[in-house]
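Long-time lurker, first post. I've been practising inverse folding by hand and with some scripts of my own, and I keep getting stuck on stretches where the structure tokens seem ambiguous. Below is the full token string for one chain I'm working on. Before anyone asks, I'm not after the true native sequence, just a reasonable design that respects the backbone. If someone could post their per-position residues I'd love to compare against what I wrote down in my notebook.
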């Protein structure tokens, strides 16, 4: 089986390989080929990343515009055509934005063709707001506000200063804007004219400032074909035994669908 792996902004394929090593080691019996790509644009490190990983660092696009996202989707689809097919895509943060945009645009514009991949594993990432807008999704004003504020909160909570002074206690989420809303209430903030219809896995942490974005991404996928796991941490992939076992089990489920 082949899995396409899409890293977060300001990291790289090699960094994503390291970030996922704990749960991937539990999948050694699955005969999985993980293909870790680098984004096409070199950029500065994501907040906190340069404390642990050397450059280079990459991004999938320069600006969060619909044109840039579409260009990245087209480039990814070309890569898949040359190197696929892929049984799954595994994505983190900005990689989730790219993968979910590719699936939505495929479903809206080329549903007669096979999907870019058969199943999707989303880790700590949300959907593309520009893509949702273009496809006619209705996103509440509160959700739009939170999307902007959460990006700034992530930079602060994930940054070098927070890591060095607070360690794991730096992750405080964004309670001021989620206001104790349940996940079902957060999902109701998006009205969906269509949903991603392949099997999906959604892994996120309730202390992540981008937690609501991860819940929103689950909202645009079919409830009966999705699995959800809250690792209760921040914008990261924890490497503890219980979390790693749980994520590995979810990957097995996705690949068996």
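-- Answer (accepted) --
I ran through it position by position. Result:
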């Amino acid at each position: 089986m082949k899995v396409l792996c899409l890293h977060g902004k300001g990291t790289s394929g090699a960094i994503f390989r390291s970030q996922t090593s704990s749960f991937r080691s539990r999948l050694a019996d699955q005969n999985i080929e993980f293909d870790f790509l680098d984004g096409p644009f070199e950029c500065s490190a994501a907040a906190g990343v340069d404390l642990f990983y050397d450059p280079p660092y990459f991004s999938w696009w320069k600006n969060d515009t619909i044109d840039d996202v579409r260009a990245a989707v087209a480039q990814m689809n070309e890569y898949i055509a040359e190197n696929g097919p892929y049984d799954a895509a595994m994505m983190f943060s900005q990689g989730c934005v790219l993968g979910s945009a590719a699936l939505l645009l495929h479903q809206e514009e080329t549903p007669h063709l096979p999907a870019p991949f058969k199943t999707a594993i989303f880790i700590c990432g949300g959907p593309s707001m520009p893509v949702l807008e273009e496809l006619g999704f209705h996103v509440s004003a509160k959700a739009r506000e939170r999307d902007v504020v959460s990006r700034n909160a992530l930079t602060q909570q994930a940054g070098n200063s927070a890591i060095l002074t607070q360690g794991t206690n730096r992750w405080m989420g964004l309670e001021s804007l989620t206001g104790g809303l349940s996940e079902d209430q957060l999902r109701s903030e998006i009205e969906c004219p269509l949903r991603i219809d392949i099997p999906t896995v959604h892994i996120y942490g309730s202390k992540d400032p981008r937690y609501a974005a991860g819940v929103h991404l689950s909202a645009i996928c079919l409830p009966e074909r999705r699995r959800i796991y809250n690792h209760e941490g921040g914008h990261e992939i924890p490497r503890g035994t219980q979390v790693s076992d749980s994520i590995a089990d979810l990957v097995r489920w996705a690949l068996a669908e």
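A couple of notes from the structure itself: The chain has a mean pLDDT of 95. The first helix runs from residue 13 to 19. Happy to go over any region you disagree with.
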